[in-house]
Write a structure and sequence with these properties.
With about 170 residues, the protein is an alpha+beta fold. The protein is built from five helices and nine strands, in the order αβββαββαβββαβα. The chain starts with a helix and ends in a 6-residue tail after the last helix.
Length: about 170
């Protein structure tokens, strides 16, 4: 299971999964609307979308205000998201985005449970732009990358990570 994989192997300080790493792969953009208010044409931010497991934000060393995703944020629980600071400033200028509601696709309400510091996604120069993070348990990934933060040499972790991946899916190339 994903929670078990996120706890193994011994050695990593932080580990998580996400659909595409920053600055490396093209990431989809999907807009949302803040609940109870609209944007003029051309004003709606078009955020970069991440689909991540619990712990991804901390594994990346990114600061978070609010709470991270948990494994209980599943398909039957309240729909939740994390947004970055830039998105919070656009959606709710001068307010805290934590606890606010976004309308995904115009009709699907999702609660903002945390605001993440800006990450430079597409390039290291300039601003970060709007970013939104969905929990993999509610969204489902379209492919995935594993993120591991460790104090050990990365090569010492490879056998344990590959073993855990093969236990989950023996046919998965790794």
């Amino acid at each position: 299971s994903l929670p078990r994989l996120a706890r193994t192997p011994a050695g990593p300080r932080r580990r998580a999964r996400e659909d595409r790493p920053p600055v490396v792969a093209a990431r989809p953009r999907r807009g949302g609307r803040r609940s109870g208010a609209g944007f003029a044409p051309g004003e709606l931010p078009d955020p970069l979308v991440y689909v991540v497991t619990p712990g991804f934000i901390h594994a990346m060393g990114t600061r978070l205000r609010g709470r991270d995703f948990s494994w209980s944020d599943g398909p039957r629980s309240e729909r939740v998201v994390l947004i970055n600071e830039s998105a919070a400033r656009v959606y709710w200028p001068g307010e805290d985005g934590v606890g606010k509601i976004l309308m995904r696709g115009g009709t699907d309400p999702v609660r903002v449970i945390g605001v993440v510091e800006d990450v430079h996604e597409e390039h290291v120069e300039g601003g970060a732009g709007s970013q939104i993070y969905y929990p993999v348990m509610q969204q489902g990934p379209n492919g995935a990358q594993m993120v591991v933060r460790t104090h050990l040499p990365p090569s010492s972790l490879a056998p344990g990570v590959l073993r855990a991946l093969r236990e989950l899916n023996p046919k998965q190339p790794a």
